[in-house]
Design goal:
By secondary structure, the protein is α+β, with helices and mostly antiparallel strands. It contains one helix and eight strands, in the order αββββββββ.
Length: 131
């Protein structure tokens, strides 16, 4: 009987924990973030010379699932939408206009501190700071 109660409690609390994680990340991400660095976790054709420079990109996330990315060097912008996975651990972004040869990728998202954010992709980690 005790195990049955634990099982029922686990079943009831799991959706609540997922919803809380999703809401937590949805609140933490709001505002603007500045690109800090990229760490490649897999070998790619991209090297340091093709990687964005630190402080060169700003991404602003709005409530309601909209984002704007600005390349600060030339003030060009890219807009799109975002949402979180059911467990709140993955951000799903879609650009409004797709560019040739590029695809939207989902990323695991983490907030090591209140002012830092990390996107983990299949091939790299992207680090941002609140700015």
């Amino acid at each position: 009987m005790r195990y049955l109660k634990l099982l029922l409690l686990t079943i009831l609390l799991t959706p609540t924990a997922r919803t809380l994680a999703q809401e937590d990340h949805a609140k933490k991400i709001l505002g603007c973030w500045v690109f800090q660095k990229i760490e490649y976790t897999l070998a790619t054709d991209m090297g340091e010379d093709t990687s964005p420079a630190p402080n060169s990109i700003k991404v602003c996330f709005e409530a309601g699932g909209k984002y704007t990315t600005t390349v600060l060097e030339n003030n060009s912008t890219l807009t799109g939408t975002y949402e979180f996975s059911a467990d709140g651990k993955t951000i799903i972004q879609k650009r409004d206009i797709q560019q040739d040869g590029t695809t939207d990728e989902n990323a695991a998202i983490a907030f090591p501190t209140a002012d830092s954010m990390v996107f983990t992709l299949d091939f790299a980690k992207l680090y941002f700071y609140r700015g």
